[in-house]
Amino acid sequence: MKIEYTCGSSALLKNINDINLELICAEEDEIVNELKRLKTNTSKVHEIPVNDTLELLDKCGRLWLNRDYSRKHIEILSHILNQSKELVTYELESTMHALLKENMKTIIEDELGNYDILDKWIDTNYGKVHRQPRGLMFHNVSGNAFVVIPMSMAMGLISKNCNLIKVSGDEPYFAYAFYNSLCEIDPTIKDRLSVMYFNSEKSSIYETIVKNSDCVIHWGGEHSGRVIAELCARYNAHLIMHGAKISFEVIDDTENINSTAQEIAKDIVCWEQKACLSPRIVFVNNKVNTKLLTKAIGEELKRVTEIIPKTYLNPWTSMKIIQDRQYCLLKYGIKKNQKVEIYSSYNSDYTIIFNDKMPDKEDIDRCFNRFIFVCPYESSDEVYNYVENNLKEYLQTMGYSGNDQQFIEKMTLLGVSIVTKPGEMPLHRPGTSHDGIYNLNEMTYVVSSQL
């Protein structure tokens, strides 16, 4: 399969889960020309009414919600991501619903305070206020959760910036497909949006892009995040960082163990735990029947797997899960002499490690593809201290069942930026902050007029 991005002339052959891809890569001189082209359009793009962009996004979202249209893309994505078509469909449709006009309108109002503030000057107590785009935005997109792509693009378009998207080598297809669908509806989208792929090992390309960008949004891991942050500091480009994050659930109390287990299982399945808001550990208060809850989670994962199955295109994924399962049993059960039990499928469909102590941080990084730790606690201070000592730099979402508002206050002071009910961790409701910030707020700047 040949994937031709907005610009590029050299081909790179890549095999992902036995799909042969021919990626058309951009070289540094071609990227420079594309940056110049986008920059010349900033004034023209500024004149596009927000409502026109929302209409475009709404049409595109509805297009992808038509399964006759999205079916072929889902099949390709399923293969590249090593996820079942059922799971890709579930994740994709949730994202496309977010693009519908009523939801985008809510995002603008909640993040910027006024729907019209990007189009006109708004009266205030001191005069008038307006939001202006930063100019040229570079989106550095990772491949762990493909659904961030349309949201990053949408925010860049709504904020009236011109946007350069660099796709991930791990998942190089969806940004290209989504961009093409926008172009089908409105070919002029090319004036303000460009999608490309280039060799990330060529560090000079990143430097060239950041040097010529007004704003950078980064979705990715720690190493790439550090590289981007250093470049933004050097060239005074505004940075919006969505780096490596870890999320978890706290079951402090529950009225129904089976219902809570059902909701936890929903959270675990989405994105095969590769997204930053997917839980990797479940803390359970000892006053809850922890063993019964753990068994119930296992039963629910078994049931959910029948509805949203796992895909085994890559044998290494299956082998690694089984190895990690055995490693944790030996490490905690024998070497550390802790009370460890494993609740799992016979194959690698799901793994629950019940441990009466908290796991080491390094083992939290094993929690992908339906692999979860369940750990009981006596006092909420145990959870707080563990998170502070192991996860503080990576905090994002906390699924919470209970009514201890003081605990919620402490955890959000520590760095948790989203608190949800179990079962709602994957639901990024319109207007919700992301990593403690509003993207539209960061992609624009405030202009105050006191005339």
Summarize the structure in words.
The chain is an alpha/beta fold. The protein has two domains: 35-244, Aldehyde Dehydrogenase, Chain A, domain 1, CATH 3.40.605.10; 246-420, Aldehyde Dehydrogenase, Chain A, domain 2, CATH 3.40.309.10. It is 45% helix and 21% strand. It has helices spanning 28-40, 42-46, 50-65, 67-81, 85-98, 101-112, 148-158, 174-185, 203-211, 222-235, 257-269, 290-307, 315-335, 361-364, 380-390, 405-414, 439-443; strands at residues 2-3, 10-16, 19-25, 122-123, 128-133, 136-140, 162-166, 193-196, 215-219, 238-242, 246-251, 279-285, 340-344, 351-355, 371-377, 395-401, 418-420, 444-449. The strands form four sheets. It has a seven-stranded mixed beta sheet with strand order 13-14-15-12-11-16-17, with helices on both faces. Strands 8-7-6-9-10 form a five-stranded parallel beta sheet, sandwiched between helices. α16 (405-414) links the parallel β16 (395-401) and β17 (418-420). It starts with a strand and ends with a strand. The relative contact order is 0.13. The model has no long low-confidence stretch (mean pLDDT 94). Pathway: Lipid metabolism; fatty acid reduction for biolumincescence.
